[in-house]
Write a structure and sequence with these properties.
Distance between the termini: 33 Å
Number of helices: 2
Radius of gyration: 15 Å
Low-confidence stretches: none
Structural class: mainly alpha
Helix content: over 70%
Strand content: under 5%
Shape: flat
Mean pLDDT: 80
Oligomer: single chain
Length: 51
Amino acid sequence: MKFKKNKIYEVNRILKVISENSFSNNLLVTLFFVFFIVIAIDIGSELAAQR
């Protein structure tokens, strides 16, 4: 449990550092999240189709 909490803290810290950097980094993060969401939806629809 402690490890998981530390992991979440690390991710938040990294995101904070990135968001405090330049606009281009924010754009990269946004693109990454959009990409991740698209993949998640794609996997979700595939799982739904298998049922």
